[in-house]
């Protein structure tokens, strides 16, 4: 049983927003979230749902399910039933989730200023420069506005993986543009689906109190090519967003003039 392999105890349960509860072969991911005002507004064009509703639905749908875990060997594989439970009350310190206008940076989880940078010395991972994860400090989730409902759910599920204690698997700059082969469909690679290995990493993160990372390696050619592509893509996205903002600003006076007439 899963309970025979993990005994997760939180020293400061009132300050731990995301807690794992294990009973037999059942795992409950118990989350406490709070949102900024923009995330609590109705999400157009959906008439009765807010962005917060979509975010929570995406996380629950992606991470809840039945996973066959292999903890000791192929012959000992067993099913684990995972359920995500989300609260918005103040039963304990919550994780903050914000919808913001982002010009360059994509969606991300970020630690408070006083926890950044030095995390890299603790983990040896550049990823920890921005997200210095700990059970009591999982970070803040920042999501961009303007996403479709489907994309918002998918990205929220991926970013939730960081809140749970998992690093990325795709070829990001802090991974030297090294995407892990064979993991292309993983949630932490392409936002597609959660795999049993990711559930094990989540369990290990909360058991040890340390973020779990996918392997990476250095290749100079790959890094240079990846950096060039990354910079070009970011410049293109920035130009498009600035152009869209200029267009919106030009249209605003015209609309106000029409309404006054």
What's the name of the CATH homologous superfamily?
Collagenase (Catalytic Domain)
Backbone shape: globular
| Percent of residues in helices | 25-40%
Overall mean pLDDT score?
A: 92
Continuous helix count? 6
Ends distance: 72 Å
How many domain modules? 1
Please write the string of helix (H) and strand (E) elements: EEHEEEEHEHHHH
In short:
The protein has 261 residues and is an alpha/beta fold.
Structure description:
It is a single chain. This protein has helices at residues 51-63, 119-123, 149-164, 187-190, 196-208, 220-260, and strands at residues 18-23, 26-35, 65-69, 78-87, 95-100, 108-110, 140-144. It has 261 residues and is an alpha/beta fold. The chain has a single domain (2-208), classed as Collagenase (Catalytic Domain) (3-Layer(aba) Sandwich), CATH 3.40.390.10. Strands 1, 2, 3, 4, 5, 6 and 7 form a seven-stranded mixed β-sheet that branches. Helix 1 packs across helix 3 (149-164). 30% of the residues are buried. The mean pLDDT is 92.
């Amino acid at each position: 049983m899963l309970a025979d392999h993990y005994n997760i105890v939180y020293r400061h349960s009132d300050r731990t927003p995301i807690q794992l509860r294990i009973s037999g072969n059942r795992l409950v991911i118990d989350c406490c979230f709070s949102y900024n005002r923009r995330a609590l507004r109705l999400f157009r064009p959906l008439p009765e749902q807010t962005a917060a509703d979509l975010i929570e639905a995406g996380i629950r749908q992606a991470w809840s399910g039945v996973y066959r875990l292999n903890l000791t060997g192929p012959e000992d594989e067993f099913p684990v039933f995972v359920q995500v439970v989300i609260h918005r009350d103040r039963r304990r310190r919550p994780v903050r989730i914000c919808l913001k206008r982002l010009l360059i940076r994509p969606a991300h989880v970020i630690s408070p200023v006083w926890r950044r940078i030095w995390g890299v010395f603790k983990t040896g991972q550049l990823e920890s420069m921005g997200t210095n994860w700990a059970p009591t400090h999982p970070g803040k989730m920042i999501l961009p506005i303007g996403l479709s409902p489907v994309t918002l759910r998918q990205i929220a599920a991926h970013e939730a993986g960081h809140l749970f204690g998992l690093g990325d698997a795709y070829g990001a700059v802090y991974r030297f543009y090294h995407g892990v082969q064979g993991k292309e469909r993983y949630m932490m690679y392409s936002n597609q689906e959660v795999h049993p290995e990711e559930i094990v990493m989540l369990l290990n993160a909360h058991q040890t109190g340390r973020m779990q990372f996918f392997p990476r390696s250095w290749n100079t050619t790959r890094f240079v090519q990846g950096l060039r592509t990354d910079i070009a893509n970011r410049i293109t996205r920035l130009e498009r967003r600035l152009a869209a903002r200029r267009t919106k600003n030009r249209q605003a006076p015209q609309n106000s003039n029409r309404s006054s007439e």
